[in-house]
Amino acid sequence: MDQAQEKSKDSEQNPNQKKIPFWRIMLSVMQASIGVQNAKNRERDFTQGSLVPFIVAALLFTGVFVLVVLFAVKMALG
């Protein structure tokens, strides 16, 4: 058995690996977007297992950010 299979088997059997709440994922995405993510949180995010919640959070953050910028520009010009 190679290391990749052992690692995936260990992660499936590890009861200590908790699912990260969505608000924590959003916070992590916001911190990473401005470059203040610390090493401990980054490691937690990369060992979480699923990439989908981070993609959803990043898309939501980007959409809200664009809307805020558009609103600020309309207020400044209007």
Written account of the structure:
The protein has helices at 3-13, 22-34, 39-46, 52-77. The chain has four helices and no strands. The N and C termini lie far apart (65 Å). The mean pLDDT is 81. Helix 2 crosses helix 4. The longest helix is centred in the C-terminal third of the chain and has 26 residues, at 52-77. It has one domain (21-77).
Observed structural traits:
4 helices, single chain, mainly alpha
Q: What secondary-structure arrangement, pairings included, does this model have?
A:
Elements: H1 3-13, H2 22-34, H3 39-46, H4 52-77
Helix pairs in contact: 2-4
Quick rundown:
This protein is mainly α and 78 residues long.
* Total separate domains: 1
Question: Low-confidence parts, pLDDT < 50 over ≥5 residues?
Answer: none
The structure class reads: mainly alpha
Mean pLDDT: 81
**How much of the sequence is in beta strands?**
under 5%
End-to-end distance, in Å? 65 Å
Q: What best-fitting shape do the alpha-carbon axes yield?
A: elongated
Number of helices: 4
Could you state the order of secondary-structure elements as H and E?
Answer: HHHH
Biggest beta sheet summary = none
From the alpha carbons, calculate the radius of gyration and give it in angstroms.
17 Å
The percent range for helix content is: over 70%
Q: Tally the beta strands.
A: 0
